Amino acid sequence: MEHSVVFAGFGGQGLLFTGQVLARAAIKDGLEVFWIPSYGPEMRGGTASCTVIIGDEPIGSPVVDQFDAAVVMNLPSLRKFGAMVARRGLLLMNTSLLGDERPGRTDVDELRLPCTELAAQGGDDKLVSIAALGALVARTGWVTPESVHAALREMVGKKRPEIVDVDLSVFAAGMAAGQPAKVA
Predict the structure, then answer these.
(1) What is the domain range of residue 12?
(2) SS3 state at 111
(3) Around Cβ 179, how many Cβ atoms within 10 Å?
(4) pLDDT number for residue 44
(5) Is 183 within the bounds of a domain?
(6) Which of 27, 58, 71, 129 has a C-alpha 20 to 30 A away from that of 118?
(7) Is residue 70 part of a domain?
(8) Whole-structure pTM over 0.90, yes or no?
């Protein structure tokens, strides 16, 4: 088993951090991981993305031609990465910034979520990428929610222990929104 995801959007949306949380959660679940950041020179407001590859065996190459999932937070990211999602892959789109924009694909699982609103519902509207991570974990099952909780506690708790509960709440809101639809 090997899965790849790209988190892409504006710098300052927490995408690189969220990729690190996913990578650490995968390690906690006993999986192999690559985390590859990419960002423009502007940092905040410029483009930022990171690729996370998770596998149950050593990962042979960090090069990804097609992603199993893409989390796109803005229009430039949708345009760049929407076409790079594999057939039957997951395309998670932040409708808070994308509105009704569509990728023009019918061969992917299109999950459209208002990430800003979900983050606000969880307690902090700035944690949009954590809301998206919750939806990704709920939809794919690549890592356990418990491993994400532990990773958030470690990574956030070291520097800002007073906000760990908010991160966990936003993650839970994203998980609830990302659950696959029940088939009757």
Answers:
(1) 2-178
(2) strand
(3) 10
(4) 60
(5) no
(6) 27
(7) yes
(8) yes
- pLDDT tens profile 154-170: 999 888 888 999 999 99
Q: How far is CA 116 from the centre of its chain?
A: 14
Closest CA to 7 of 101, 86, 78, 103: 78
Question: pLDDT of 72-110, one tens digit each?
Answer: 999 999 999 999 999 999 999 999 999 888 888 899 999
CA distances from 115 to 21, 72, 90, 152 (A): 17, 11, 16, 18
Rounded distance, CA 83 to CA 102, Å?
A: 12
CATH number reported for the structural domain that contains residue 21 in this entry: 3.40.920.10
**Who's near 92: CB < 8 A, 6+ residues apart?**
69, 70, 71, 72, 111, 113, 132, 135, 136, 139, 178
Burial of 146 (0-12, 13-18, 19+ CB in 10 A): exposed
pLDDT confidence of 45, banded at 50, 70, 90?
Answer: low
Question: Is 172 among the domain residues?
Answer: yes
Separation CA 164–CA 150 (nearest Å) = 10
- DSSP H/E element including 173: helix 164-178
67: β partners: 85
**Rounded Cα distance, 48 and 14, in Å:** 9
User: Considering its fold, how many domains does the chain have in total?
Assistant: 1
Tell me which residue has tokens 């506690």.
Answer: 153
